[in-house]
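User: Before I run my own analysis I want an independent prediction to cross-check against. Here's the chain; please return only the structure tokens and, at the end, one sentence I can use as a sanity check.
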Amino acid sequence: MKKSYLATSLTLSIAVGVSGFTSVPAFAKTKIDYHKQWDTPQYIGEVWEPEGAKGDDVVWSYLEKYKDEFRIQGNVEDHFEIVNEARNKETDTKHYRLQEVYNGIPIYGFQQTVHIDADGNVTSFLGQFIPDLDSNKQLKKKPKLNEQKAVKQAIKDVEGEVGEKPDFIQDPEAKLYIYVHEDESYLAYAVELNFLDPEPGRWMYFIDAHSGDVINKYNMLDHVTATGKGVLGDTKQFETTKQGSTYVLRDTTRGKGIETYTANNRTSLPGTLMTDSDNYWTDGAAVDAHAHAQKTYDYFRNVHNRNSYDGNGAVIRSTVHYSTRYNNAFWNGSQMVYGDGDGTTFLPLSGGLDVVAHELTHAVTERTAGLVYQNESGALNESMSDIFGAMVDNDDWLMGEDIYTPGRSGDALRSLQDPAAYGDPDHYSKRYTGSQDNGGVHINSGINNKAAYLLAEGGTHYGVRVNGIGRADTAKIYYHALTHYLTPYSNFSAMRRAAVLSATDLFGANSRQVQAVNAAYDAVGVK
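Assistant: Structure tokens:
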């Protein structure tokens, strides 16, 4: 039974469950959408005046107001931590990112966002909050395993996945969390295993802190199964640095730098910094990796005022000629890596501007919403990379068409315009619900990709007419949603809310942009 909450000055309208969401752009009434499983708010929309509270106290006062809805006993500050505060100068809004904690231990992926308008009023809450953790006595017990034993358990298991003990890029570490998996909560260690040999992997493990069992695991590596000439023979100009009588592929004009290395067909990273004697570069893979990284940096800087993937100018490092005939490109948590392809399935993968932008967007997502790379949140992670890949390489709505199957014209990895053409669903009713592909992270990205295409270009889909708003406004909405509203376990329904709220922030509650967002998600069956 859902509880009802009667605001003292506002009428409450409750939408039960994910499927009951409908937008109320003007927030004339308080609207609460409850999580189907935990019966706690996962969305609150209203205009709430803080009555004199300032700064962080606005957030604490707001959460105190909904204390009973979250089923919190005691001090709300014991259940949340403020992990980030951002002000959007364009909209004069403030956006707080919170982390749920239990007895001082963070709950993995359970983050929330609270949003404040230009007048200082709270307008919305998004995220997931799990209540009643006191009922699980195991969470109060001290761990039987220490960090070192948890790491050993994860390494032992991953050896079975890849056939031998990996050669780690960095020493694995374990961090203690409350971890929620398949309706159960555990005291668990999160362990990231990042390696290149015997094959590239970035595995996330969750180890029960009492039993040492593997609760969950998944591989987070995303696979895309001066002057110089690029992979396709086109001439590019890009910034390099002169060192003595030699030029190196290092650009010092953007953030803290853009650097391009070669692995010389081996698997050590980052490899050797690329050099040239006359500053006319003929290594097409290196030319494209460098120039495309610069173009992607420029896009996020010029369009969204973001200084590199972390917002603070982090060095963008790329390595080309990784391994031999390697048909992949990936972001490994610290840098980009490109294979040369086998010449049949792929050309050198750095030759695709959209591929480079796609992978670097994974880095942006990792530093903002942190969308967990499984199931619906993972599909949104992939979709965000496809969307911004298409925004940077803006001549079409295809992904990887320049470097995929060079012997076959008109082919691509995916299409935002027509996901079904490449076997991906274009409507929520057709979503994949199996366990392959980390729960369909690449497959189901087509649903949100189609919504983004319709939002930008318009069209009729499943009988719903969408009036397009153009690429520029579409990109603004998705970037605002990614950096301010989405949280690690956001699903498709949360994506719709985040897009509506972002459009409201940017263009106004009654704008054509808000109308178009609602229509686009209606068209792909996301409520």
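Sanity check: Confidence is low (pLDDT under 50) at residues 1-28.
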